[in-house]
Amino acid sequence: MRGTVPGLPSAVPLTAMLPGIFQEDPFTVRFVGGFDDVLAPILSTLDNLGAYLDPALAPEDFLAWLAGWVGLELDESWPVERQRAAIARAAQMYRMRGTVSGLRDNLEVLTGGRAQVADSGGVAWSVTPGAPFPGQDQPRLAVRVSVADPSAVSVSAVDAVVSAAKPAHVVHRVEVVGS
Questions:
Q1: Angle between helix 100-111 and 155-165 (nearest 10)
Q2: 141 near 110, Cβ under 8 Å?
Q3: How far is CA 143 from CA 110, 117, 123, 163, 169, in A?
Q4: How confident is the model at residue 152 (pLDDT cuts 50, 70, 90)?
Q5: Comparing C-alpha atoms, which of 147, 88, 148, 146 is closest to residue 117?
Q6: Which residues contact residue 26 at a Cβ distance below 8 angstroms, ignoring those fewer than 6 apart?
Q7: Which pTM does this prediction carry?
Q8: Nearest CA to 110 among 50, 164, 65, 60?
Q9: Three-state DSSP state, 175
């Protein structure tokens, strides 16, 4: 939590900006010094604004705010490192949204484990008319997430992520196993 920090010097002391006559008055110096104590954390925050906007350096209580900027909703039970990684990779994940590799990467960041995604579809071309279609005739998706502690990962949360990422007509199965 940000606020006054005892002993934090001001980067721009106001007493030095006073006319010389006021700098000699002890009451005025003490009075204006109170403003320095209040403004020092604000100026320090502004001087370090870049660190507040970097997920790797931002204070922990700023992570939820940063996540809102990139459209993420963080789970408070995640370790801080996983929250930082999810925010840092959010834009890249949006570019890969709707792909098997995008779903796999998203699940790996969100669970901290290893994800395998098996898709029944396929894309191919043929110079022979009437050639068989690639893949299977019924679209299916199988997802297996391997983590150190399967009880620490919510299967319903993984299922919700998969449901949001796949086309509505594709049937899916989710499995969380120990690694």
A1: 150
A2: no
A3: 14, 5, 20, 11, 16
A4: confident
A5: 146
A6: none
A7: 0.62
A8: 164
A9: strand
